[in-house]
Amino acid sequence: MREVKVGEIARAVKKLCMDANYHLPSDVIDALKEGYRKEESPVGKDVLLQILRNVEIAAQQKIPLCQDTGGAVFFIDLGQEVRITGGNLEDAIDKGVKGGYLKGYLRKSMVSDPLFKRINSKDNTPSVIHIRIVPGDKIKIILAPKGAGAENMSKVAMLKPADGVAGVRDFVIETVKKAGANSCPPVIVGVGIGGNFEKAPCLAKRALLRKIGEHNPDARYARLENELLRRINNLGIGPQGLGGRVTALAVNIEWSPCHIASLPLAVNIRLAKRALLRRIGEHNPDARYARLEGELLSRINNLGIGPQGLGGRVTALAVNIEWFPCHIASLPIAVNIQCHSARHKEIEI
Questions:
Q1: Is the residue at 39 inside a domain?
Q2: Would strands 110-111 and 326-327 be described as parallel, antiparallel, or unpaired?
Q3: What is the pLDDT of residue 280?
C-alpha cells in the first residue's frame, strides 16, 4: 500500500489549475493550424489566426486563454493500492483549486447556491469531481476547466431504441446547429451514448479528454465520429459563428451498454440521480428547496395524470431536489423520474 499525503495532492492541483488555463494542448493547437489551412472563409481564417495568436500570448505571459476560466471539473483515477493520508481527497482537490485560482489570477466563477442565492463562492470551489477506482498505486488527476458558454449549449436526451443511428445523428447535429456562435466555435464535440440518465453526460465529458485525431477504437463509432464531423462542418457556422467550414475540430464518442428499452444520449460541447435515494417524506434540509419540493409535488398531482396514467390525483409520491454550486453564468437542471418501484439498498464496508 502506497501512502500519498493530501498536501502533495493540493500542491499538484494548484499548479494544474494555472497550467490548464495558460496552455492549450499541442493536439488542439495543431488542429487549429490545420483548420486555418482548410478554412475557405477570409473572415474565418482571420478569426483562427487571432485564436492562434491568443494561444501564444497566453503561454508566453502566463495569462488565461479565456476570461471564463471555468468551473474546475476533475477526472480522477484512484489506484486501489493508494492510501490517502492527512485528510480527505476532495478537500485536498478544493484546497488546490483555491490556491491555483488565487495565485494564477483566474476568474472565480462558482456560485454557492444555484437557485435562491447566487453568490460567488470567491474561490471557484467546490469542484466537480469524478472518481474512478482503478488497479495500481497511482493517482491520475485530470482537470478540464469548463466555461459556461459551451456548457450551456450541451444537451441530454433519452431516445427510444428505435431512433437508432439516425436519431443520434440528428440530435447531435441539431444541438450544434442551435448552439451556433454561443459555444465559441471552433469546438470539440463530446458525445456520450448509452449507460443511463447520468452516465451519458459523464461519457460525453470524458470523450472531450481524448486527443484530437484519436478515434473510438470501435470502427462503427469511429465512422460515426467522422460522419458527424463532416456534417457539422457543412453547417456553415464557422469560427466564432461568423461563417466558414471549420465549426468543429473533432467529434469524440464514448459509449456504454444500456438498458434494453432506452437509448441515452448526451452532447457536451469543449448528476441529479442522487435525490432518488432519499426516502419519501425526507425533505431537502434547506427550507427554500423543501418549499419548492412541496410546490412541485402539489402542481404535478394537480395535472390529473393519476396512477398508470388513468386519471387521478396521485401522479407523484414525492419530489426530491438535490443541488450543487454551479458556474456563475449557468443554471444546469436535470429531471430524472423513478417509477414507484424505487429499488435501493445500501452497504457500508
A1: no
A2: antiparallel
A3: 56
